[in-house]
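Lecture 7, part B: from sequences to assemblies.

Below are the input chains for today's worked example.
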Amino acid sequence: MMLIHCPYCDEKRPEIEFAYAGEAHIARPDAAEQQEMSDAQWSEFLFIRDNKRGEHCERWWHANGCNMFFNAVRNTVTDKFVKTYKMGQKRPSASQISKWNEGGNV
Amino acid sequence: MSEFRRPGRGLVDYDSPVKFSFDGKTYDGFEGDTVASALLASGVHLMGRSFKYHRPRGPVGAGSEEPNALITVTRGKGRMTPNLRATTMEIYAGKETASQNRYPGLGFDAGAFNNVFSAFFPAGFYNKTFMWPKSFWDKVYEPFIRKMAGLGPAPTEVDPDNYGSVYATCDVLIVGSGPAGLAAALAASKKDQDVILVDENPQLGGSLISSPEVTIDGLSAADWRAKTLKTLEKSGNVRLMPRTTAIGYYHDNFVALAERHTDHLPMVEPGRIRETLHRIRAGEVILAQGAIERPLVFDGNDRPGVMLASAAQTYLNIYGVAVGKELVVFTSHDSAYNAAFELAGANVRIASIIDARREVHAHLIEEAERRGIDVHIGMVVSGTKGKKRISEVEIYESVHNDRKRIKCDALLMCGGWTPSLHLWSHSKGSIKWDSQTGVYLPDKANENCVCIGASNGDFGVKAALDAGSKAGGGRKTYKTEEPDFGVGEVFDHLPSYKKSSKTKAFVDFQNDVTDKDIKLAVREGFHSIEHVKRYTTNGMATDQGKTSNLNALEIASKALGKDAPQVGLTTFRPPYTPTTFGALCGYRTDDLFEVTRKTAIDPWAEGQGAVFEPVGVWRRAWYFPQDGEDMHAAVARECKVTRDSLGIFDASTLGKIEVVGPDASKFMNLMYTNPWSKLGVGACRYGLMLGENGYIYDDGVVGRIAEDRFHVTTTTGGAPRVYRHMEDYLQTEFPELDVWLTSTTEQWSVIALNGPNARKLIAPFVEGIDLSPEAFPHMAVREGSIFGIPTRLFRVSFSGELGFEINIPSHFGLAVWKALFEAGQEYNITPYGTETMHVLRAEKGFIIVGQDTDGTVTPQDAGMNWIVSKKKKDFVGKRSLQRSDLVAEGRKQLIGLLTDDPKVVLEEGAQIVADPNQPIPMDMLGHVTSSYWSESLGKSVAMALVKDGFNLMGQTLHIPMAGGVVHKATVVKPVFYDPNGERLNVL
Ligand SMILES: [Zn+2]
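Predicted structure of the full complex, as structure tokens:
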């Protein structure tokens, strides 16, 4: 059972307190944007997700903890969390991720 | 005393004789013996029959790696455990044990014909032979295979034992208590670390117990061990856990330990815990699991009496048992010489040492000769003889074609040593191939973990001790006197003069896999070791190939002409050794298997003899039978009284979320399809929630308590996901909104009163609320009190009758319910359960999300376009409702069905077709979603999702059932009772 660092609690907590919440950084288009989108574009937003081998940006929910949603970079091969960060922070760049990797996880 | 005992040797208690039984016969042993050691002391090697060929087998090892000697232990009703290793089962007085996989008896076994016909049972035999015809699988092949190829029978009774569960943390967890583990514990203890030291064996000390020739810092190995254990016991910061197996190593140093408390005890007081599963989170893990000796692969290597050289050493030094009177040793590694010399020193005659290597250190040969042991260099064992036990070996030299026979009653073999990488591999530590020794060794750690001693390829006591000290944070170097552990040579093939078809050289003893099977798999095109494993089943038995994986790899890579690392190594998976389901379940059985949520009113329903049903994790009253009524009668009565007078229903399980804040109505507008801004304080509205994909997600009545406060209700089962859905959008998409969400499901008890007398009942007890229809219309909420208890009183109806839902703080729920029930007697108040609630709502055509919808139903499909705002710019799901396939013609739509025969109640889930005479497979139009007998209407009513249903009004559809019956039904609007809602207006 993994330990996951919640950026709001700033603590490593057991995996069972958390729930996976899908890929991160997929912003919901606002009302005006929605109406400009074709069905195909809207379907892309709704259904199409990366299936990444390696570092993946994803959302987690500290469901049985502080109740906050946050983002994480997790390596889907090793199942290791590279870093967790607060909602609203930008998607980390590849170079940022490799820096984190060098510095050890979280 | 038996001629095989060596009193003065071993840790058994010679003053405590113990009698036990094996296959109905009584045997003698001593306290401290295992079933295997005591049987060997009685001259018995034959302990089981093999899995596939039913060949007679004896123990190969002396510990948990044992593939052959599997037994069933029985200790009273429900306490029968099959497939236990005789080599690890400690005996106690009266222990009942039995061999397995034999009929009628171990000595003569009918299934042994599999052995005679073994040429017909090669690798993949089952896969190839039993494929066709398909219909034979269930009735012919599978029962046959299960009967003939098998382990012990599974127990049939409920396990009466108790099991424990413990969560704990420590600074350092050490697995294995040999020299490496003990030295690590000693060092870590001195650093004031919180240490746990586990070992699967009853005695701590590992190889130190069977190393009488070794001295450490001037003490004998035995004395050093005793002193060290005493030091650790006194330290106060080291927890010693014998009889505890580290069964699995998971992420972030989470290690599962299975501790056995009682299986070795003759008497177990009732209620005592049999096993405990410890879940340990360790700061650092030190793996000192040692190494397992490798068998050699030669014709007849599975005959009882053929065993690992180290096992014979263990039997001598731990149990004081000589495994035979006249032994032959067959080796390709120096370490077997030490075993031979030790046994010779204990008065066991070593007839010969057969060494497959062409070159061997002179000092070993000299020492053997000094002891009068013949050494045959460059020779191999080419065959064995003997029925229940080996009686003779044939040895062979390939260059000169020399052959010779030697009498013996046991053959010790040693093909080198395999470092135990099981837990290391669980932790996803990487491994590297060491071509010199022909083994995999630990490479890079994936966790805060080190692998030391023999499991790291560092053989010898000093190497293990020094590595242990270092791993534990110390810097001690030990002085030892010990025989050189030596070196060996790995053979992927031992020469033989025999035709391959005439030989049977086993690689995996437990699954009866021979070298030929592995070569056959390679010939048939299996090139990865993972595929070879699955095709031959090598390494797939309960021992997970502890003694066979490396030999299989050598043979497969040789056959493929590749280096071993290119062929790979099969994956080790938890558990390290077979673990009882009891230990894994812990206390989570029976009543503690799953949490059952009960409402505050549940005890009353139970007292009334209600029948309950599970709804999500809740237990809800289903119906309240009276005077021997069946469900049908009870529900008919409950429905009738509710419609005629008054019914009372516990609706506490409804999900409730308090939505509060200046932007609460903005948030509600985004989460629900309908508008909320203009909903007045004190008014209620039915809300429909969609997923972003436009499909119905949940529904419920919402009351506006204040400008900035909504009391939201959800379906019973949907409460957690609706809350999550709301939190998700609030936190991640609409964080600018100033809104707070609180789950209040368990804060409120909800008592639903339905029926024409509902208002009359509550009127005398309600304060602060004008109940008149003008002041308190349908779909309104008021705050006041009832029986002096503060309440949020909703005037809503899920039945079509005049209805109130009384929300009171949960701890008053039962009291208010009882008071209402007593006062309601004059109206024949009748408690009803979920079944009646369903009938009443179905009569009105109210949907249940998840029953009448299935995650692909839009509001339009459900005939609920009226609730979707056209004016709102945005709400979750809005854009999806415009997708071409969601507005397409001919989607499945929710309609009502009335059966032609009003007595027929359709089956929920039944498929609907237009023409029942079409050939199978028929064109399905949809299915029945809800169907009930309506006592009020005197006929059955149903709802269904049907393709293009809205355009089929008045048409007849068919519902063909299994068995040939076809029901007819007419499509109608799904409102069956009081379509104009007049009954809500009763005064
Ligand atoms: Zn948190």
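Note for the exam: The interface with chain A takes residues 250-252, 254, 279, 281, 428, 446, 692-693, 724, 727-728, 731-733, 735, 873-874, 878-880, 882-884 of chain B (CB under 8 Å). Keep this in mind when comparing with the next example.
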